[in-house]
Amino acid sequence: MFGDMMNMMGKLKETQKKVEETKKRLDTVLVDEQSNDGKVKVTLTANRTIKSIEIDDTLLEDKEQLEDYLIITLNKAIEKATNVNETELAAVAKEGMPNIPGMDMFK
């Protein structure tokens, strides 16, 4: 039993290390999004850090319209990045779960 417990602890530590490595890698995964008409384009990492924003000059004339464009486009980009982030981290966590009786709900 003690050996099994040590094995599980080792596997959990290994999984934690893989999760941290995945988080670092997600800083390099870029997600692009743009408004329907292409007037606003944003790029962010899968960890939801904004890397760039491009705005068409025609939007600079109307502050309210620009704000609307930014909100919509950034929210779509954040949703995409969140989906990538959660999928990647869930895959690593699932892969590293030790086989604990009664805990197969994570599989």
TrEMBL record:
Keyword Coiled coil appears in the UniProt entry: yes
Keywords assigned by UniProt, alphabetized: Coiled coil, Cytoplasm, DNA-binding
UniProt GO MF annotations: DNA binding
Broad class of where this protein is predominantly found: cytoplasm
Top-level division of the source organism's lineage: Bacteria
GO-annotated cellular components: bacterial nucleoid; cytosol
Keyword Transport: no
Coiled coil residues, start to end: 5-32
Subcellular location: Cytoplasm, Nucleoid
NCBIfam families: DNA_YbaB_EbfC
Function of the protein: Binds to DNA and alters its conformation. May be involved in regulation of gene expression, nucleoid organization and DNA protection.
Membership in a protein family: Belongs to the YbaB/EbfC family.
Subunit record text: Homodimer.
Protein name: Nucleoid-associated protein EYD45_00935
Organism: Hyunsoonleella flava
